[in-house]
Amino acid sequence: MKLHQLTLYEAHERLKKKDISSLELTEAVLDRIDALDGEIGAFITVDRASALAAARAADDRIASGSPAMAGLTGIPIAVKDLICTKGVRTTCASKILENFVPPYDAAVIEKMKAQDAVIVGKTNMDEFAMGSSTEYSAFKPVRNPWDLSRIPGGSSGGSAAAVAADMCIAALGSDTGGSIRQPASHCGVVGLKPTYGRVSRYGLVAFASSLDQIGPIAKDVRDCALLMNAIAGHDPRDSTSAPRETPDYTAALKDDLSGLRVGIPREYTEQEGLHSDVSKAVAAAVATIEALGAEAVTVSLPHTRYVVAAYYVIAPSEASSNLARYDGVRYGFRNASGTDLLAMYRNTRSEGFGPEVQRRIIIGAYCLSAGYYEAYYGKASQVRTRIREDFETALEACDVILSPVAPTPAFPIGEKVDDPLTMYLSDIFTLSANLAGIPGMSVPCGFSQEGLPIGLQIMGRHFDEKTLLRVAYGFQNATDFHTSKPKR
Amino acid sequence: MTITKKEVVHVADLARLDLEGEAIDRFAGQIDTVLAYVDVLKGADTQGVSPTSHVISLFNAFREDEVGTHLEREAALANAPDKDDENFVVPRIVG
Lengths: 488, 95
Prior knowledge:
By secondary structure, chain A is of the alpha/beta class. Chain A has helices at 8-16, 22-40, 48-64, 107-114, 157-164, 181-187, 221-231, 266-269, 276-291, 307-322, 341-352, 355-368, 374-397, 420-425, 431-436, 465-478; strands spanning 43-46, 76-80, 118-123, 170-174, 190-193, 214-218, 261-265, 295-299, 400-404, 440-447, 453-460. An eleven-stranded mixed β-sheet of chain A has the order 1-3-2-4-6-5-10-11-9-7-8. Chain B has 95 residues and is mostly helical. In chain B, 20% of the residues are buried. At the A-B interface, helix 10, helix 11, helix 12, helix 13 and helix 14 of A face helix 1 and helix 2 of B.
């Protein structure tokens, strides 16, 4: 096995035994990026020099034993390019932040650096995380490593493609409406959106503040748990982060699923547009999980038909407010051709934001404007309560809910790029977890007839990531979908 | 039609975005399609339902009012498109 193919756990064990050095591992990963990323496009910035310096520092730490080696020490990790990295540009895949170099690290980056993790680069994404295909990057699209003519999913498409193609050992993404789970599903890797408030958003560029959450994208379930151990926890600088203890997530990795009840939402199996390969793979996954000792029960989420509409009012509304800060004054791009301040704002924003971001700002500004607020944002926020209650009720009858992640396997590049509503409708199964604030996870559960990966979604109660990980781990150990790799 | 071209241009203007020519037609069509779809919300019974503003029960995240370390001026100004030694510089506001 080549070094770049190692899982986080395997790499950690080999570093610990001093079988390999972080420098060797990091060089292997950087060489892999050099060899493949020209055609995949997963990275916006690769900082070779600082990655190698971090690897040397990790090797010194491992050699001296002081401070003691931590879970991520010496591990090459890719970071979605909307998580601030001090001194390394953070673009959000937007022209408006093309040259933005953050003066501070995000909380999750501080935590990783404290462990001497190696940040290999910043990954491509839909501009400001708005999209489901990574086609809305202002710089370049990402291609799915399983089939270069297809999208990798989005918005964390770069992180998912980088993990799938072994261009990093693990990655961080962010998930506002499925942006970790859906690309993980399309790229055949594991992704976890933690409970809202579980991971600090300090230093995460804001898209929709009541929905955004950072989480891991990894080669398997154990790696996902290891990353959660590193990044979860309360942070006083994010007033929405939850002041509670975080468990050792690896303690949840037990094979036995007996005594667990898994809920199958009636409304999801009847969902229009659900691809037969996806429904078959998910049904087979449910059968596997039952065979491992869990009991499947049917549950109901009666407000499912309102989910896409509620989300596509709330998320753009919050975005229009959050993105008001990009005005060409304090950081980022400025178009200075106008003669007065107002012209500078208008020229800067019109030139700096891409079309999808502009569409969402306009939709959001409309939904928040006088006379429309109650009908749109107010109503959607009430419907959000209904959706949240649906999940609370369903999760009284079961421990986790199982569903598809995306209704179809990865679609061809270009298919939906000019049809926003069709793109939005493909998010049907993932948006609810963000609206309800609950954790959601994607694990590989099969392949389409064309050989494209399919993901199983596992959702659970607030702050109960460990039960998601337990189900995912049991399922993974009974199957080998996660060990299949794209051919390159 | 849920939203007119004129309204799209007006809202864009409020958001400090200039729409011109073909972009107006394209955006107006796409945004109208989305808003027409969103109308499904009208069918949801939300009588007496409180809006969700925060998904986990978290109230009043208090902290001590203590002096901390913050960005130095130089770091805060580092990314500015235009600046002098102490300030962000913007085009003239008042004639």
